[in-house]
Amino acid sequence: MRPIHSMRPSYVASSFGLVRRAASSSSPSATQAKFYIPRKERTTSDSMYEIDNIYDQRIKRRRRIDPTRELNYTPDHWERHKSVFRRIKHMFTTFGSSPFQRLLFPDFFVTSLIAGSLTYYNEFMITDASSQLWIDGSGFAAATTAIALLTGFRLNASNARYAEGRKLIGSVHSTSRDLATNTMMWIKLREDKKRMINLIKAFSVAMTFHLNKKGSHHSIRRCLPNFEEQIYAEYQAEMLDIYSDDQDEDFLLICNWFRAKQNVPLGITTVMRQIIAENEQKDSFTRELDIHVHRLVQSLGGCERIQKTPLPTCFTRHTSRLLWIWSNLLPFAIYPVCGLYTLPTTIAISYSIMGIEDIGVQLEEPFNILPLRQYADNTYDSVHFIESAYASGKYAG
To answer: What is the pTM (predicted TM-score) of this model?
Structure first.
């Protein structure tokens, strides 16, 4: 059997350009974390988020162009979500909804300008009805049906990406639980157990920043002159909430990787596997531990595939062009029927079709709207509970 001192890893993460002993220092951020609240300072589980209670469990939107971002539902939220009065409530909140506000400018502005100008011209500027501007609505109705089907297909394709992204994040959560449980049972040394548990917690945080540039701190504006420094400050604060000691070698290494714009989640799995490989345990236990790490790597790869590969951009652009042309020709098609009410009718019809397309565009990038921070917090809480549950048991040694 190897002597105990030989089991202490020296880090062979050469693919990341760093080794454990080289990570003796991490340049501290010159900017203070402003958005992350350490766990010991939180009053409730949702105190990290500014909730817009008008729209159930949604994070308050800071700007008109921000998408809808919802937190995890509880039974109470589901009860309200399925309420028989939901349609009435949703009608009263139409003008504050994300699709409507995002379409206000420039889409509705241009369409309203065309519809208003057409109505004014036909109603007040000419006296001969034969000189009015309009087009036959029968052919336009067929085009409207085709465009509605196209936008529906667009939404379904985007929703499939959203659903897959959620499944992959869920897989990370369940795998982290399994890996934490097996770590507490099968990793022999207390120091290695603690390192593995911290790395499991850090993986979800690192993945949040890997998949979302802002680390799901959506209030941070990209236009800030110190944007990159602010993101690093938030990242460092979150990792310090896990490690407590700012001189911990794993903490320093993970922060250095982030500074160097490396693939931090992948680096963390490399460290995990080194700990597993140096653990004096049965081969079957080692394989089981490595299988869980492999599942983390697979989920990471799946998320990266979604993040880096949009729907074919030619399809997205073609749909966008058709909708723009359709919405701006719509007033000419409905004027013979609607007359003075052409403008509001145009907006109502445009909203019904273009809103579907806009929702599809938002769902296409699921990691910008999924509550990644809440998922990472849930993983931390689960792993921490597993660690505590085993602390006084037979595997605590």
So the answer is: 0.89
